[in-house]
Amino acid sequence: MYSTFRIPVPEDFQDIFSHFYYAENKSVEAIKKTLIPSFHTLLIFSFGNKVSFNTRQNTEIEVGKYIILGPIKQAFDYTLYPDNAILVLNLKDDAFYRYFGNPAVMENSLINPDELVNGDCFASLWNELNRMEDVTARVDCILEFSKPYLRNRDKIIEQLTTMQDENLDPIKSIAERNNLSERTIQIHHKEQLGYSAKEFNRYKRFIKALQIVQEKVSEKSPIDWFDVVSECGYYDQSQLIHDFKQYMNLTPTQYLKFMEDICNPIN
Question: pTM of the prediction?
Answer without folding.
Answer: 0.80
